[in-house]
Amino acid sequence: MRDWLTGDVFKADLLVDISNVVRTSRTRQRHRANLTRFARLLDALVAHESDPNLLVYVVADRSLLAQGLLPADQRRTLTGWRDGGLIDVVGDADERLLELAELTGLRVVSADRFRGHRAQHPWLQGNTDQFIAPHLEPDGRLIVRPVDLGVVDEWEISRHEEQDQLKKQGLLVGTRRSPWYDILERTWRCPDRRCSLYDTSRGDYVILPRIRKGRPTCELHGLELMDDGPRSLTVQLKLLVRDACVARFTVQADRETAVGRAPLSGISLTPWLNEQQSQLVSRHHFSLITRDGRLLVKDCSTNGTRISLVARHSRPARVVTLRAGDEHPLGLGDLVSCCAHIAFTRSGRKFPSEIARELTARPISLGAPPTVAARDDVRREQQQASDDA
User: Fold this and answer.
1) What is the H or E stretch that residue 163 is in?
2) pTM recorded for the entire structure
3) Dihedral sign (CA 189, 191, 197, 202)
4) Residues of the chain with CATH 2.60.200.20
5) d(Cα 110, Cα 64) in Å, to the nearest integer?
């Protein structure tokens, strides 16, 4: 394998995400990493490129070298490559790969679709020629083939950004990569009284705890955080004007937020309304309400409020028109509007309280609730991860 590695990216033919490759299996689930998958990939790349002198620049997450992820002899091999300058070991392999791909134009070998990175790297959207993924044939042969990354909706990008952030903070556990909701459903406080990183009064931005050795830890001071009680539900919304996000707002739990041309308190749309639109929008047009773990829209207007519902579970997309007093839940991707070209939508980013609530509370409109057994399985995995750490 060593003969195909190069530490000079400008001599490489391909970039390889080794952290992703060594964890990929037939079922696309995450199992214990194994370097033999990388060896098979190199053979497949040589065959695909018809080049026995192929050189690859390899990028690895630092976590791959942690004890227990690879067999001991393979970890020593990987460490030797790192010390010899043959692989690039960084904290975030995905970001490093994308920076190098944009700089050099080299193709990237990875099973990842990088959905959480498309806001920072818009060139990923619709890319059909710069990514290659390993594929296991029915007869057991490993081949590689080009990947069409497709175009991902903005709200879905936000969801994957959220997932990536949870991963970085050590808040995804078990083979299911489930959020650690026992941590997310609580607020935390740093023992250092000068620290305000976890101050929930800031509302629109919440620092997630970093898990170190199985314990929530302050990002700045490295101290174990103190449990400060249950976290209330907070939802973030975006104001779209001609499909461009011009502002973001947060709605707190058990609170009604008025939206309209000039509400007594709440969100005023006046800065974005022209004269014609102002005639169609009531002073208090609709309210945003968080209740029982969901976000509701309540019409309070003369002309009605429209909600465009995204297609879910193979159902066609549809538009619901609310009249005075009507309420309707607002899901991810749905749009609520009171005039043309101006709409609110939920941010794809979920707050810690909402992630926890989705996993533990009964669903309101879609899907089946997680069974007690399923939740217990996740909790056992979380406890095992904590014990292992």
Assistant:
1) helix 154-168
2) 0.50
3) positive
4) 234-346
5) 15
* More reliable by pLDDT, 203 or 100: 100
CATH classification for the domain delimited by 234-346, as one of 3.40.50.980, 2.60.40.3410, 3.10.20.30, 2.60.200.20: 2.60.200.20
Residue type, 8: D
Residue 234's SS3 state is strand
What's the rounded Cα separation, in Å, for the pair 377 and 364?
23
Rounded distance between C-alpha atoms, residue 268 and residue 283, angstroms = 9
Q: Does the pLDDT value for residue 365 go beyond 50?
A: no
Between 167 and 18, the more confident residue is 18
Q: Which amino acid is residue 223, in one-letter code?
A: L
Task: Classify residue 55 as left (phi > 0), alpha (psi -120 to 50) or beta.
Answer: beta
Alpha carbons 10 and 216: distance in angstroms, whole number: 41
pLDDT higher than threshold 50 for residue 363: no
Delimit the CATH 3.40.50.11980 region(s) of the chain: 2-152
132-176: pLDDT as tens digits: 998 888 888 888 888 888 887 666 666 666 666 666 666 666 555
Helix (H, G, I), strand (E, B) or coil at 190: coil
Q: What is the pLDDT of residues 308-334, one digit of tens each?
A: 887 554 456 688 999 999 999 887 778
The architecture in CATH of the region 2-152 reads 3-Layer(aba) Sandwich (3.40)
Closest CA to 48 of 110, 134, 136, 127: 134
**Three-state SS for 310?**
coil
SS3 21: helix
Q: Which of 78, 58, 47 is nearest to 14 (CA)?
A: 58
Distance from chain centroid for Cα 283: 36
Model confidence at 182: pLDDT above 70: no
Pick the range with the lowest mean pLDDT from 68-82, 93-107, 190-204, 299-313.
Answer: 190-204
Task: Give the number of other Cβ atoms within 10 Å of residue 316's Cβ.
Answer: 7
> Quick check: 62 and 89 in contact, CB under 8 A?
yes
In sequence order, the β-bridge partners of residue 342 are 241, 339
| pLDDT score, position 385 | 44
Tokens describing residue 212: 């170190």
Nearest to 181 by CA among 378, 356, 377, 362: 356
